[in-house]
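Encode chain A's predicted structure.
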Amino acid sequence: MQIVCCVKQVPDTTQVKIDPATNTLVRAGVESICNPYDLVAVEAAVKITEKYGGSVSVITMGIPSAEVQLRECLSLGAHQAILVSDRALAGADTLATSYTLASAIQKLNEIDPVQIVMCGKQAIDGDTAQTGPGIATRLGFTQLTYVSQIIGLDIQKQTITVRREIENASQIIEAKLPVMLTVELELGAARYATLPGLIKAIKHEIKVWGAKELSCTAEKCGLKGSPTSVKTIFAPPPRKGGPVYDTTEGMDQAVNSLLDTLFQKEAAIMSEILSNDSKVKNA
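Encoded structure for chain A:
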């Protein structure tokens, strides 16, 4: 049994820069990390193989420096790593990304059957939560999103039982393999790498696949295969602080000042409402 974890290199900052010409992330000069949700997926995959056997393959699509994140996953217990990197794949949106990653997973499946694909529920730089479901759709895998617990795996029946989070509740679901899981942080934090794990990660050869190795259709990759059009993107301006009421001169004075402010706002709102009603009646 092979488990594939899709991971992503993301900027380690809340203030991202955007290329105005392409509306894509500018990564130069910004430190990168492995998407935290994806590290949870890697940890869960390693735990499954420790209990039931099998291997964990990690795969990422990105620039050559993403090799650092792959080696981090290897140090945590993954067995092999694949970097999908090609200029033809640059600027991909979630549709093109899911197509490319699904192509890579299909290539892995030809070598060793893939029963489980795992990734974080979303990436912290985009927050779309679309790539995982897109991969599941392209592969025809059962799709289980927002997984917070893996309850069990039945190798003979080829089923997996998980708990997934829904609005104000949770579900326990049994599903047939092969399956795609997108996981929540509640599933469990990644372990600390051991010294042998770090040494293995440094020495491990990382395979690099491009569009040619994956037999990808050019029109479905990168910017060509990305129908998403970003009109504009920006960081919201910082919020100004609210009014401050000083109690050093007495609590009563501070409370009275607060009430005056509230009444003034309420009076302004009521005045606007009455003014609008008057305009409607006179129309």
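The chain has a mean pLDDT of 88.
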